[in-house]
Amino acid sequence: MDSVRLDKWLWAARFFKTRALAKKAIEGGKVHYNGGRAKTSKNVEVGALIRVPQGWDTMEVEVLALSEQRRGAPEARELYQETAESEKRRRDGAEQRRQANQAMQHPFKRPDRRDRREIKRFMRGE
Description:
By secondary structure, this protein is an alpha+beta fold. 42% of the residues lie in helices and 19% in strands.
C-alpha cells in the first residue's frame, strides 16, 4: 500500500468512530500532521508524527503502517506507536485531574427549598 488519506487512516487506526468525525476534526484544526495543520486528503506516510485529540488529552503518535481497512483494536494499535513524551504528558494530566477531583468537596445532600432560594439569590447578585 503506497498511500492512504489522513481521514481514512485515523478511522482505520480507531481514533475516530466514523470518517465523517475524522474529517470534521481535521478541518477544525484539531489534528496536526508533522507539526502543522493538514487537509483531509493529505497522504499519510510511514514515520510521520500525528497529533490527535483524545478526550481530555492529546496523543502524539508515529505512523508505523498504513491501512485503509478498519480492523479490530489489537490490529489497529499496530498501525502506530505513541511517543514517550505524549505518554508521560497523558499520565501527568490524568494524575492532576484525579487529585483535583479528590480535593473537591461534594455536597452531602441535595439542596432543599431554602438552599435553592439562597443559590438563586446568589446567582442574581443580591
